[in-house]
């Protein structure tokens, strides 16, 4: 199946908060000046950190834990790992949450996550709640880079706490890729619910 193309992000960063003005790549602790090399190293380092979390996960009970996951994944390469972005982002002309609204967004997501952790849920209800959390977390888009990888780890550990495996395999499965991308890019919670109904697998004890 051919994969649909999705539009690139646009950032308002006139003061070069994140971009090195000389090389036009993200400022990084490895002092890499080539965007392709930086991307390869970033993915390599974050993949190794994700493997660590597979065996020793950071469980999520609030946005503080979401920030901790982002920090763990990207601590090797970005000084701002685990910190909310200080620039605004749009995609295809549609803006993500303005950074000025992060306090409100954090409070709302804390409530969604707390409700999720406190309630006993059937698989359909679990899928709906994960879709709601993922949709709101994606709209907030709290970090300058690495939102998708952080989101996928967050929903993985939330499901794990409820006794389910939840692997969003966007690399090897085209159906999963399109459900995830359509759901997040277009804010389609029904597509996200279908995604979770498709991939949630109860852990046999």
Which keywords apply here?
205 residues; mainly alpha; 7 helices; 5 strands; 52% helix; globular
Account of the 3D structure:
With 205 residues, the chain is mainly α. The chain is built from 7 helices and 5 strands, in the order E-H-H-E-E-H-H-H-E-H-H-E. It has a single domain, classed as Fic-like fold (Orthogonal Bundle), CATH 1.10.3290. The strands form 2 sheets. It has a 3-stranded antiparallel β-sheet with strand order 1-2-3, with no helix packed on it. Helix 2 packs across helix 5 (147-161), helix 3 packs antiparallel against helix 4 (123-140) and helix 4 runs antiparallel to helix 5.
Q: Which sheet architecture does the biggest sheet show?
A: 3 strands, antiparallel
Strand/helix succession: EHHEEHHHEHHE
Mean pLDDT: 93
Spatial strand order of the main sheet: 1-2-3
* Low-pLDDT segments: none
State the CATH class.
Mainly Alpha
Radius of gyration of CA atoms, rounded to a whole number: 17 Å
Q: Give the count of helical stretches.
A: 7
Q: What gross morphology would you assign?
A: globular
Strand content: 5-15%
Q: First CA to last CA: what distance?
A: 36 Å
Number of strands: 5
CATH fold node name: Fic-like fold
Secondary-structure content class = mainly alpha
Going by CATH, the architecture would be: Orthogonal Bundle
The residue fraction in helices comes out at 40-55%
Looking at this structure, what is the CATH superfamily?
A: Fido-like domain
Tally of domains: 1
